[in-house]
């Protein structure tokens, strides 16, 4: 029984006030009920996932198929993830500021739910439960619109979520599942003015760009990361090698992986040959995939590698590829980053506190590191407990979006007849 | 010498990092220099204003002409306003959160400037200096695009601002003035992706709607206020009369003025006749303009007035007109507000703490009042020191936007070689 996207949105909006009025304990119980349902509905979820896998694994390729695959262990992980979210402090109702005015008015700024949060995502079915748990914990109804490859898996997980909500005495409409994976349904969400309070696209650059250009509902830009590491003249070179290798290779497919290395000319002749060995022969010796280096002219004069093309300093490779350029100074590195970065994460490796200070002051990205890997840009690693994605925009939320970033606020003002 | 809008934006973006790196003292000095220049350029500003007035006062009508008019006193007021903004705490550089992680990473969330803030506004020339002062104090370059009636006045004020910036050793491009008041230039700003970090429309509903629908740059919805007052069964009726009269008539043309009164049926027969006297005969006796009442069927059965038409509960009158309806309960009032409010400001008048609690919990507007006038929704009245407008959206900023709401943040992370 398919429901239209608009009906699902209206039902979620109508149900949202019930959740907004729910106590922290009720929300906590509801998340635990959902976590239980994921386990008790495991057979149905696995069977739905087998059908998705049968239809799509040949066309998806190994990496994407692995993302689509569910196992009892992965479902147990999803269930545990919901319990983790349940255990986080409730973000709703916090008094963010309180002032008593000279006229006696008491002005409180209080965290409140956003209302309806919609997520458009691509292949991984675990996003269905992760995203729903965070949105519901933040007191908002959630609209889930996943990709076609995971449709049956997502539908089965969404059903478990809705059963869990019912178990806890909450309306199942709080978790709306869009039963249409066409571009049309994504567009419908982008244009659902008055029915969606926040739209979060999680996926490729094309999806995110479409949201930014078309959305008439409030939307947060996530994810694309052309992350830079700058090895300064005063870098500890061993540290720089460790950080570059980690940021590039520990998980090349994620948005906080590094794509570009900038090296100060004062150390380039010494550092680049070490880098080249570390990322190629050395990795192969360890049985690991080597990194292809795409070199600007000055780097190419020092080490072997591919000549960088025009687009190589503006590409999110998401692969074992690193663009490398030599720069003249911290300021030159800052300028390069300003011209090419997507505003996600950048790092400087240096023992010079002044250089570090100039870099962190001037680089305008969501996360700026001194002597650490860009891979730490993550809600858990930043101590937020969880995350709904990494915002690369400057309004509302920047960097990892945790529960607080999934709420709004309002002013509640108590008086005794004050007029102006 | 006209410059194209795009060139002005590019110059502002290029200059923005200079201001972002400026010390609080430098910004403070720059604002004082601007305040001085407004006074020293007073003759040029008054002369430009006379030309605007000559061209437009006949077509504008008395109220709008008065908004356009500048006098030495008003310029002194604008100059003093800039000094007030200068004296506010600098919002940039505040450490909003700091955590040391188990791995030794120190994660700081630090307030940073947005970059370039653009304001599209209509007739009042004082917005030119008010908006510029706040944006600059918040560390951002500002783009000013006013209405055609005030073009010469705005240009003269912008020139004084740019002279002040130069006096303080800052690039005058930090205050860009768009020398084109056509719709085309507003559209150009809405679509200037990558050049504007925040666009704030200040003006009529048409302008705000156009921004919401077309803007490809981040935009904050301001202003439209269909504000409600609910007189509960347990209202102190004298207090309710004072609050309704104040909220409706103290300044009917502003967004925090009340447009709709909801009255609990239990007090309607007693309260509405008192209200009718207070807002009509009584006001006329005091030499004040009476309020036209537009009544739903139940109110019309109790007092004389105009029968409310279909749109009267969805109209921002901005005039001496009040729509009045009788409701059955707090919940009925909450439902009416959810269906008709623009999310600006609403008030309950009641001596019943439980009714007040239900109302403030359920009404999802930027400001919700108990026993006070909606007219207090204002940056100064809320203790923010100033404001750039009232946001009626839920992301980033809600209610009065002060200096903090005009900043973003980024994470600055210090390590000693951590990898993940």
Q: What does it look like?
A:
Two copies of one chain form a homodimer. Chain A is α/β, with parallel strands linked by helices. Chain A folds into two domains: 5-223 and 395-414, Aldehyde Dehydrogenase, Chain A, domain 1 (3-Layer(aba) Sandwich); 227-376, 3-Layer(aba) Sandwich (Aldehyde Dehydrogenase, Chain A, domain 2), CATH 3.40.309. The first copy, chain A, is 43% helix and 20% strand. Chain A contains 14 helices and 16 strands. Chain A has helices spanning 5-20, 24-40, 42-68, 72-87, 126-137, 151-167, 183-190, 205-214, 237-249, 265-279, 281-285, 297-300, 330-340, 353-362, and strands at residues 95-100, 106-113, 116-121, 141-145, 175-177, 198-202, 227-231, 258-264, 292-295, 306-307, 321-327, 345-349, 367-372, 390-391, 399-400, 407-418. In chain A, the strands form four sheets. In chain A, strands 10-9-11-8-7-12-13 form a seven-stranded parallel β-sheet, sandwiched between helices. Chain A has a four-stranded parallel β-sheet with strand order 5-4-3-6, with helices on both faces. Chains A and B meet through helix 9, helix 14, strand 13 and strand 16 of A and helix 9, helix 14, strand 13 and strand 16 of B. Strand 16 of chain A pairs parallel with strand 13 (367-372) of chain B.
């Amino acid at each position: 029984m398919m429901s239209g996207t608009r009906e699902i949105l209206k039902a979620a909006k109508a149900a949202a006030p019930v959740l907004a009025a729910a106590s922290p304990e009720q929300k906590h119980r509801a998340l635990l009920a959902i976590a239980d349902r994921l386990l008790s509905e495991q057979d149905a979820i696995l069977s739905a996932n087998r059908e998705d896998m049968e239809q799509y694994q040949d066309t998806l390729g190994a990496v994407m198929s692995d993302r689509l695959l569910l196992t009892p262990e992965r479902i147990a992980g999803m269930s545990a993830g919901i319990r983790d979210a349940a255990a986080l402090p409730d973000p709703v109702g916090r008094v963010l500021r309180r002032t008593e005015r000279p006229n006696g008015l008491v002005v409180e700024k209080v965290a409140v739910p956003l209302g309806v949060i919609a997520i458009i995502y691509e292949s991984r079915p675990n996003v269905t439960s992760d995203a729903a748990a965070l949105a519901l914990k933040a007191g908002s109804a959630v609209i889930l619109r996943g990709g076609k490859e995971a449709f049956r898996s997502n539908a089965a997980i969404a059903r478990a979520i809705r059963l869990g909500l019912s178990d806890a005495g909450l309306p199942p409409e709080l978790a709306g599942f869009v039963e249409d994976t066409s571009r049309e349904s994504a567009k419908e969400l982008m244009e659902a003015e008055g029915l969606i309070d926040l739209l979060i696209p999680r996926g490729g650059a094309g999806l995110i760009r479409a949201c930014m250009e078309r959305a008439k509902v409030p939307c947060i830009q996530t994810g694309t990361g052309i992350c830079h590491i700058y090895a300064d003249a005063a870098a500890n070179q061993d540290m720089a090698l460790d950080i570059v290798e980690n940021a590039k290779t520990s998980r090349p497919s994620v948005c906080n992986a590094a794509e570009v290395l900038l090296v100060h000319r004062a150390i380039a002749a010494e550092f680049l040959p070490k880098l080249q060995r570390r990322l190629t022969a050395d990795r192969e010796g360890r049985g690991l995939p080597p990194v292809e280096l795409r070199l600007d002219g000055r780097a190419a004069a020092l080490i072997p590698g591919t000549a960088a093309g025009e687009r190589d300093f503006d590409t999110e490779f998401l692969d074992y590829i690193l663009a490398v350029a030599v720069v003249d100074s911290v300021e030159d590195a800052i300028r390069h980053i300003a011209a090419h970065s997507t505003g996600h994460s950048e790092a400087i490796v240096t023992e010079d506190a002044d250089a570090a200070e100039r870099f962190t002051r001037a680089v305008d990205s969501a996360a700026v590191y001194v002597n650490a890997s860009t891979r730490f840009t993550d809600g858990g690693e930043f101590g937020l407990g969880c995350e709904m994605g990494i915002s690369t925009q400057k309004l509302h939320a920047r960097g990892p979006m945790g529960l607080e970033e999934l709420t709004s606020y309002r002013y509640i003002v108590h008086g005794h007849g004050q007029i102006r």
